[in-house]
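Wed. Picked up where I left off yesterday with single-stranded DNA cytosine deaminase. The coffee machine is broken again, so keeping this brief.
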Amino acid sequence: GPFCLGCSHRKCYSPIRNLISQETFKFHFKNLRYAKGRKDTFLCYEVTRKDCDSPVSLHHGVFKNKDNIHAEICFLYWFHDKVLKVLSPREEFKITWYMSWSPCFECAEQVLRFLATHHNLSLDIFSSRLYNIRDPENQQNLCRLVQEGAQVAAMDLYEFKKCWKKFVDNGGRRFRPWKKLLTNFRYQDSKLQEILRRVHLLSEEEFYSQFYNQRVKHLCYYHGMKPYLCYQLEQFNGQAPLKGCLLSEKGKQHAEILFLDKIRSMELSQVIITCYLTWSPCPNCAWQLAAFKRDRPDLILHIYTSRLYFHWKRPFQKGLCSLWQSGILVDVMDLPQFTDCWTNFVNPKRPFWPWKGLEIISRRTQRRLHRIKESWGLQDLVNDFGNLQLGP
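Structure written out below (tokens, as returned):
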């Protein structure tokens, strides 16, 4: 099984400093396609403790590879000694890395083991350049990091500015982008998304078995129905839509909560998000989704569900009502939504073949949802929200 990397090593590593020079940053973090002479890896980190909705910053600094130990591993040893050994294991931490190179295969393997043994951690990795990206093993472990729950992304102008402000001895100067920064970002991002695309897609078999909208008659089949959440996020800055697929695991956070954590980390405002769920949200997830939407009035969130979860129980109906009252649009998946979900998350090159009775069951579930709206006196409110649009 996985082991704690920090416990297996006794040598203590420390950050090289809190700030790096402007020259070091501009040389080592320049996001060139072909970066000659840049063998060192710099890792700028920030550790925050999750405290309700207001994260508390605990540590920040810079690591560099040392004694043939890569910067990522130096950080893990330090984090184990200075944070995990000192603070309560019940605390939840968010770690953000800004790296000159993405992790190599061996480092990604160690990070995976560390995350697997410490479930109270979340990790965001922003890289200026992709390391040895043609190596299949490197590609595989970047995908595995995402599957383990880490966010892996290329550094955009926003991350370079943030890194310059927090980790560079900038003398009060503003960050001045180098030539082709955005062009090189688009190149790095496209290569990374090409690799990670395989993570986000559902298999055809999984889609047909999990999004199947017929009523569940047998208990054994019921327990085989997993809670999936597929999401697509559309922005107005010209970038391609962001897509992902999340799965609730037994004994861990529900997919809706994983989704909220991921969206919060992006610090977005005006966006349109479409979610496809195998099951409608439970009451707790519904209330958290509603609170998230109320805090972001410019965001449009549309939830389509294949099946209604315990729809005859009043707490679950009340959870659905909290979604409608917050401005979230909740509907039942019909043929157009199943087709769109298939195209975006399963296989865009093959047509979706609907199963027998799909549309009949969808209409039946829609009538059931409509009766819930009416019984709680929310039909007019839902119609009003449905007429709202978000402008660019």
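Quick read: The two ends are 49 Å apart (CA to CA).
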